[in-house]
Amino acid sequence: MNMWAARADDGYVLGGLTKQCVDTLRGVPMLVESNDSRVRERLLPDTYDGAEDEEQWREHATPELERLFMSRLQIVRKDLASLRQIEDADSWAIYLPDTHVNAWLASLNAARLSLYALNDLEPKHFERDGDVKCTQKQMEALWRIQFLAEIQCVLMGDIDDLETDEDEDDGVDSGEGEAEAGGDDPLYDGPIPPVS
Amino acid sequence: MTRSPRAATQEKTKTETRTQTAPARPWNVIVHDDPVTLMGYVTRVFMQVFGYAEAKARKLMLEVHREGRSLVWSGGREQAEVYTQKLQAHHLLTTLEQADA
After folding, report:
1. Exposure check for chain A: N or C terminus, fewer CB within 10 A?
2. pTM to 2 decimals?
3. Where are the domains of chain B?
């Protein structure tokens, strides 16, 4: 993979994407929408210890969260439609507007969490020096998780100019409307930071 | 024997006053560690959701990373639920616990 990233006037251009990268990006919505119980439990986790409180939460908060996830995926799908193959090259490029960054960051995180859950991965699988055996499927999932993390790193750019949810009117973060900071060349330049 | 209406009113007033001033136990918003979410992303979400300065957000993120969980906000239940929903909207593993009496 030889991905590069560059700032455009009001967004990011990601290029050098291989077919595997493109397939992984196109798979993001399906991962987030997965009905697998492991994915649903992680993306919509238990919030309260008490059964009654949890039932109330499931009745009121969970549907709002699901709607938010779906609205973000609409943005992601719209951008995925802009994937273009570079002429005379076996690579693709995509343009991601600044106003879509929040939706992308959250959806990428959800997709990475889904891959982790669906492939029975464990923290030990992320240890770089560990001697952990992985199946082929797990190896592929780890690659996809890392690739999506690289995209997140690019999109996080400069954290200093971040807008806060306090500036928004509605309750739940809409995932839209955030103007991401932009220097001239916040290019992706190397190793992925450690996970939390 | 019947108590006078005035005495009954005084007792009711006392009872209401006691009820209104009883301290409410706050609700704690707890973020738990997960092996997938990027540290920078967690910091960013804390800044975005709470408006925390980067130093405070990073400190809380490191607490999640090192201790496995962090109390990121405490207060009234309604606001705690709003924050919890926002954190879950960003896919941070978040729960709500009522503080000990």
Report:
1. N
2. 0.81
3. 23-98
| Size of the A and B interface in Cβ pairs below 8 Å | 116
Which residue segment(s) compose the domain that A122 sits in? 4-33+70-167
CA pair distance B59, A80, nearest whole angstrom:
35
Could you say which architecture CATH assigns to the domain B23-98?
Answer: 2-Layer Sandwich (3.30)
> Chain A 105-164, CB below 8 Å of chain B: which residues?
105-106, 109-110, 112-113, 116, 122-123, 126, 145, 149, 152-153, 156, 159-160, 162-164
pLDDT per 10-residue tile (average), chain A, 196 residues:
86 94 98 97 97 97 97 98 86 96 98 97 82 89 96 79 47 41 36 46
Beta bridge partners of B30: B71, B95
